[in-house]
Amino acid sequence: MTTIDTPRRSRGFARGALGRSWSGVAVLLLFYVALLVAFSLLSPWFLSFNNMMSIGSNVAFIGLMAATGTPLIIAGGLDLSVAAVAGLTGVVLALLHGAGLDIWVAAVAAILFGAAIGLVNGIFTTGLRLNPLIVTLATMSIITGSALVMTGGLTKPLMVPGFNWIGSGRLFGVPVPLILMLLCYGALWVVLAKTRFGRFVYASGGNPEASRLVGVPVARTQITLYVLSGISGAVAGLVLAAMLGAAAPDAAGKHLLTVIAAIILGGTSLFGGRGSVWGTLLAVLILGTLNNGLTLLDVSSFWQDVTRGIVLLLAVSLDQIRSRAAGD
Q1: Does residue 78 register a pLDDT over 90?
Q2: Residue 311 lies in a domain
Q3: Domain range enclosing 237
Q4: Where are the beta strands (DSSP E) in the chain?
Q5: Closest-CA residue to 87 (of 55, 53, 117, 58)
C-alpha cells in the first residue's frame, strides 16, 4: 500500500463537505439576523453594545467546548464528557492553588489533566473500537462523581485578581472570554480549511475505511481530536471559574445539551464527514441570543429549558433531513 501526502480522496471529501457547510452557514446567518431584529423590536435594551458583549461573554465557555467538538464529530467521534471536564478542571485548579501552587502553574496542570482525559477517551474509542457514546458517557459519570467527591459537593472560592481577569476583563471594550472564543474558532478554521490535517478530519468521518486504504491516519486523527476536546473543555473550565470567581464541580454539566445542540444546529452531521466551525459559532450565538432575549422579555427560566429542548430536537431533525438530501 502506498501512502501519499495529500490523498485525492481526502481532498474530495473536504471540498464537498465544506461546500455544503457554507450554504448552511448562510442560512444560519440569515436566521441570526432575523432573531436580532425581532428581539430589538420587542425590547429597547436588547440591541445595546453592553448587552451584545454580555451575550458574547456568557456563551464563550460554551463556545469553547463546542469548538473542538465540531471537528471531532466531523471525524466520526463524539465527546459527552467535555462539560464534566470543564467542571473538574476548575476543581483541580482551586485545589492545587489552595495547596500553595502558583495559579498559572496550576492552570497549566489542569489543562494537561484535561488533555489526559481526552487521550483516555481516544484510546478507548479508537484503540479498543468501543462506541464513543458509551465511552464518553462513562467518563462523564466518572469525572462528575470525582469532582463532587473532591469538593464534597461544595463550591471552592477562587478569587485571584490576575486570573479572574480572564473571565471578567475587557480589551478595547470587548470581553476577554469572547476574544478567546473567537481566536479559537479562527485557529480551527485555518486548520480545517487550509491544512492536510483538516482534510484528514473530513475524510475520517466521510468514509473511514476508504480513507485508511489511501493512507489517511484515521485513528491518529481521531485520538488527536479527543485530546483537543479535553484541552478545550479544560480551557472552558478555567474561563468559567474565572468568571464565577469560584470552582463549582457541576457548573458546566447543565450546558452539555446546549453544546451538542449548537454543533448539530450549526450543520455538523452526527454521521460524520460534514460540518463547519463557523456554523457552530453562529449556532452558539443564536442559542445565547435566544436565552438573553427571553430573559429580557421576562420569560420564565423553565420555558427557556423547554426552548433549548425544542431547539435540540429541531437540530437533530434538520441533521437527518440534510443527510437524506445529501444521500448520506
Answers
A1: yes
A2: no
A3: 8-22+53-252+267-278
A4: 156-157, 170-171, 174-175, 246-247
A5: 117
